[in-house]
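Structure first, sequence second, as always.
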């Protein structure tokens, strides 16, 4: 065999550097974007933001992920979140002089199999950061839990009310039941694993005063699923929208930078955390209680609100920490077939002029059987007649230009090669389920 070509001096230097780096890193921990001697050394004054990789941030400390932490016996106060608002928002919060006396809220928190620690801290943070005069009631809905925690919750505030169902009703019916009993003119929907932040409510009410037919959302900061005491600032550049399979996604087609403070429109809502006037909620006849268990309420909220004369906004100056959980960390199973059935029920009404696109991306829904859609169809007709609701093409033309752009670019991740909907290159775009490419900024601006 011929002798290998001589290695250049530059390549020798690079290889030697890599070798030395590996030797140096061998006995260290990876913190995410850097390495350190131990997890305790990762933050370097930056807290949870620099505690990643092999480490996790727990109760103000950076520890190795292999260390197990038991939250069950914790009797301490709720974790005080960092102020994640921009400096502009912090300054504005000292200047707001709005009168919200006509916009008191019923804070509705449906829950199923939540940890008591999370429920308790959710309420503690609410009481701490919410002006008492703006709260009519804290309305906890125990959906099929063995213990409604009524005694413990009511001991924390005289404004707590508890509605308890012995048998599970599902998220949609639980919310609807609470709305019927809510006394305040404004509904605030929350979840039992949240930490509200400073001055969270007033910016939402301020927007609701300007736009009475709006759904108004905070920016959701992130509480890591393996660290209830962690808290990471959320994005202020993205909005919520739907793919053609009704999958909810977070996108930024304008490639905006972080740090904005002005409210902005969003094509959709995540459906769990927002404020809305009770009269507007009832005028739109939310929810379709034929949707069972979990999934679909956010879809109905989004399309019915936009197409019937309302709007959806995100308010960066309002921040709420939310415990995001993947299926393995969720305290209850989700019946995926039921979710798809709920989506199909909505698509047949709200996407009836574009139904084929939904079935291309959710072919399993086409043969699903519904017990009855009569009440939903009658409600749809009433709301359409009352508000002269627009069709889905109007929504594509005026609200979600990304969704319109994707119509001739759809692909399905599980069809065989050669199928018309096969994804080019066999891959989906990052964090997407129905397209292999994302809309370029210049295309969106057209």
């Amino acid at each position: 065999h011929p002798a290998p070509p001589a290695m250049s001096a530059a390549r020798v230097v690079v290889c030697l550097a890599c070798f030395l780096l590996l030797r140096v890193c061998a006995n260290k921990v990876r913190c995410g974007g850097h390495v350190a001697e131990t997890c305790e050394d990762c933050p370097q004054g930056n807290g949870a933001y620099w505690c990643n990789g092999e480490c996790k941030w727990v109760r103000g400390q950076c520890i190795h992920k292999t260390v197990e932490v038991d939250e069950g016996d914790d009797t301490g106060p709720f974790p005080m979140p960092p102020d994640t608002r921009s400096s502009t928002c912090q300054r504005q919060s000292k200047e707001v002089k709005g009168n919200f006396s006509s916009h008191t809220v019923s804070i509705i928190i449906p829950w199923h199999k939540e940890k008591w620690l999370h429920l308790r801290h959710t309420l503690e943070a609410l009481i701490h950061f919410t002006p008492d005069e703006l709260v009519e009631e804290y309305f906890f809905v125990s959906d099929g839990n063995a213990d409604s925690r009524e005694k413990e919750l009511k001991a924390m505030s005289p404004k707590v009310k508890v509605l308890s169902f012995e048998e599970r009703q599902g998220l949609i019916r639980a919310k609807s039941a609470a709305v019927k009993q809510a006394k305040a003119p404004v509904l605030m929907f929350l979840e039992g694993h949240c930490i509200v932040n400073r001055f969270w409510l007033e910016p939402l009410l301020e927007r609701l005063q300007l736009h009475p037919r709006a759904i108004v959302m905070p920016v959701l900061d992130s509480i890591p699923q393996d660290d209830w005491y962690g808290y990471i600032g959320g994005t202020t550049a993205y909005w919520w929208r739907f793919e053609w399979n009704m999958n909810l996604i977070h996108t930024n087609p304008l490639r905006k930078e972080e740090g904005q403070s002005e409210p902005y429109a969003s094509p959709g809502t995540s459906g769990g955390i927002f404020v809305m006037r009770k009269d507007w909620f009832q005028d739109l006849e939310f929810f379709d209680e034929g949707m069972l268990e979990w999934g679909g309420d956010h879809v109905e909220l989004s399309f019915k609100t936009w197409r019937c004369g309302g709007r959806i906004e995100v308010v960066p100056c309002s921040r709420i920490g939310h415990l995001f959980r993947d299926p393995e960390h969720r305290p209850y199973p989700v019946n995926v077939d039921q979710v798809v059935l709920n989506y199909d029920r909505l698509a047949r009404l709200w996407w009836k002029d574009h139904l084929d696109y939904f079935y291309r991306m959710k072919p399993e829904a086409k043969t699903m059987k519904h017990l009855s859609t009569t009440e939903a169809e009658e409600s749809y007709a009433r709301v359409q007649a009352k508000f002269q609701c627009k069709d889905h093409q109007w929504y594509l033309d005026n609200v979600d230009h990304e969704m319109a752009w994707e119509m001739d670019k759809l692909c399905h991740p599980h069809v065989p090669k050669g199928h018309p909907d096969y994804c080019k290159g066999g891959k989906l775009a990052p964090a997407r389920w129905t397209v292999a490419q994302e809309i370029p900024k210049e295309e969106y601006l057209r």
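Margin note: The chain has a mean pLDDT of 89.
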